[in-house]
Specification:
Strand content: 15-25%
Strand order of the largest sheet: 5-4-1-8-9-10-11-12-13
Order of helices and strands: EEEHEHEEEHEHEHEHHEEEHHHH
């Protein structure tokens, strides 16, 4: 099963200021702020929704196709993804813009000052999925993740017009989209991914009830944080899958992307929706125990030991066959 993932590609530059921003601000001069903070650490991390999902799928042995836009500074990041089983040949390289970048400084009170540079991400709207499909011999599913909004709409409409099954996955872009855009993005989706808060936001913005949305999508996948995930299909009982026990809770960033990576990989194995959700929850647990969205290591023996403990021998035997 050939799966393409469209979505953002970005790097995060995270710095720490050993003081309090508040101590440097003069109330009477806030209209003319000019400050420079001497930081004592810099952490550069790979990120972006599309890249995070593909990295997780590659870790599980899938060969996902990453579709997005980056700058000429993407070479090192590309090599990293290539080494971890990701097909990056359909990434568009901008001739004028850098790869999207988030730059953030955090003080001792955990206040943050940050900026997000979209950069090359805006060129994702120029990518045609048909050319991707021709290069890889066809696409069985396209996961349309958070990206340039115009790109998300173009990819969705192209999937519908060409009859390519797609998964709608708005994540952080849902906040800036209006009801009409969301209706366009989810209509006739094979899968709709949201967390519980986003689920309510989708219903509020579209004006469609839960039942009306299930009339328009085949499968609705709602992540529930520590409670796991619920899968809904029209006329069927919900499937609820819990999360494995965490060994630590280090950083929640990228957990949703990891779940999608595991779930999509399960689909590529042609296992049940319940089993795919279990794989997703297990991978998400590894990410929450790690600082950074692509810093975890999937050791198959350790993964299967914890998966067995969480979901039982029968489930583990089925997943083990695909990991082998």
């Amino acid at each position: 099963m050939r799966i393409a993932v469209t979505g953002s590609i970005a790097t995060d530059h995270l710095m720490t200021f050993p003081g309090r921003f508040a101590d440097q601000l003069v109330a009477e001069q806030l209209h003319t702020v000019s400050l420079s903070f001497l930081v004592d650490s810099l952490d550069v991390r790979r990120g972006g929704v599309g890249a995070n999902i593909c990295f997780g799928m590659g870790q599980l042995g899938a060969r996902p196709v990453l579709v997005g836009a980056a700058g000429e500074d993407f070479d090192e990041y590309r090599a990293w993804l290539d080494r971890h089983g990701v097909d990056t040949e359909s990434v568009r390289i901008s001739e004028t813009a850098h790869t999207a970048r988030f730059v953030c400084t955090t003080d001792t009170d955990h206040n943050q000052i940050g900026s997000f540079y979209t950069g090359a991400m805006s060129e994702a709207r120029l990518i045609e999925l048909q050319k991707v499909a021709e290069r890889v011999g066809g696409l069985d599913l396209v996961c349309i993740g958070a990206d340039d909004p115009e790109a998300m709409i173009r990819h969705t409409e192209e999937c519908r017009s060409r009859g390519i099954p797609f998964a709608a996955d708005f994540s952080q872009q849902i906040a800036r989209m209006d009801g009409e855009d969301i209706r366009v993005l989810l209509d006739k989706a094979t899968y709709l991914f949201t967390n519980e808060y986003e689920k309510g936001l989708v219903e509020t913005k579209t004006g469609w009830s839960d039942a009306e949305i299930l009339d328009r999508v085949d499968t609705r996948v709602t992540t529930l944080g520590a409670q796991g995930v619920r899968i809904d299909r029209k006329g069927e009982e919900p499937i609820v899958v819990g999360c494995p026990q965490e060994e630590a809770k280090v950083d929640p960033t990228g957990v949703g992307d990891a779940f999608r990576a595991g779930f999509l990989t399960g689909l590529s194995w042609n296992v049940s929706l319940e089993r795919a959700a279990q794989v997703g929850c297990m991978l998400a647990t590894l990410v929450i125990e790690t600082l950074g969205t692509q810093e975890y290591e999937l050791r198959r023996g350790h993964f299967m030991e914890r998966f067995t403990k969480a979901y039982g021998d029968d489930a583990a035997a089925e997943v083990q066959a695909h990991l082998d």
